[in-house]
Design goal:
With 433 residues, this protein is of the alpha/beta class. It has 12 helices and 21 strands. The protein has helices at residues 3-6, 15-36, 38-46, 68-73, 106-123, 142-154, 166-176, 185-197, 226-234, 345-353, 386-400, 411-418, and strands at 88-92, 100-104, 130-133, 157-160, 180-183, 209-212, 238-245, 250-253, 261-262, 268-273, 286-292, 303-309, 311-312, 324-325, 330-331, 336-338, 341-343, 358-367, 373-381, 405-408, 429-431.
Amino acid sequence: MTNLELYPTIEKSEIQEIKILQEQKLLETLSYIRQHSPFYKQLFEAVNIRIDDIQTLEDLVQLPVTTKDDLQKHNQDFFCIPSHDIVDYSTTSGTLGDPVTFGLSDQDLERLAYNEAISFACAGIRKGDVVQMITTIDKRFMAGLAYFLGLRKMGASVIRMGPGIPELQWDSIFRYQPKYLITVPSFLLKMIDYAEKNGIDYKNSSIYGAVCIGEGIKDQDFTDNILSQKIKEKWDIQLFSTYASTEMSTAFTECEYQKGGHHHPELIIAEILDNDNNPVQEGESGELTITTLGVQAMPLLRFKTGDIVKSHTEPCACGRTTMRLGPVIGRKQHMIKYKGTTLYPPAMNDILNDFQGILCYQIVIISNEIGLDEIIIKVSLENSEEQFVTAIRDHFRAKLRVSPKIETVDFEVLSKIVFNPKSRKPITFVDLR
């Protein structure tokens, strides 16, 4: 890709120009869906929607939203192309237990590669840089494939290490001298711990930065959260947030100023909606709802991601004028009402990450015998003294005004549950309601 392609001019254009482009692509998407999507054709007829009435971004509110339940119950009806035109199958978690299947055409894979290439370029990765992928590329996982395709498209060199095994990660780092890592950020702490215990001079490695996936590293004001602070206290590297999902086939990635993930307006329309599916007021949080642009196999209209976010519309210091997404506040389905207080797991993660003596943890939410939410926090500790457990409980009370039940679990037992080899990232939250 040329520099012009890696840094699309539309992202630094006037807001009105961006709106015109998005509306043009929206009309193309609606026309395509009306012709090819069994699900949306039936939906438009059922609710008497006239697609020709949808001309602007503001008109989107006339369309019903699409939910994860819709994807689960009508998976095949979302496909707009025959099976012989699908070149890759990916899956994502469904609401009813079984995974939801996504198919990608050759054109969709090209779009996916373009998205990741411009996203990595936004974070500062350049042609010729060596990048170590500490994420799976198999198991029907779209993200790992997307990272590889994007890095290849932009001309970077890729080391496909996969997750886990700190010893092999360090061997690869010192053997091939990568500049960037792509990883779940909490794994960086495991790498640091291994390096310190085995005399590895990690502070003088080739690593400049890490693109962090799957876990938040920023607070709402874009300062480093506890997890990010713990990493940087040990290892002076740059950490860049990126946010995406299988359904979106698009990423929101931070630039060097690290003030939120940048929107790619040629690839996706993003709305922030309230509980009534109307746009929130400027600066308010709501559920990210997306319309994919240019997707051939499984385009989505007004898909509710379940993630609660805020948008930031002031121009970025990097020159981009596109909207930026702030850190995910929480998942709507993971919202917890506990003793009159509304909680999201990221807030509890921050508190647990604040303690040096916690080896690993898992937050479990259950419904009690009268139907109320209960929080059980399972922890493995370096020192299981009761005073330490009390300190954790007191910290929760001070920060969140609640005091959850805390259970200590042997590290050998809990670590196998949290770092399950069948899971793409640590299982630190389980909702059993």
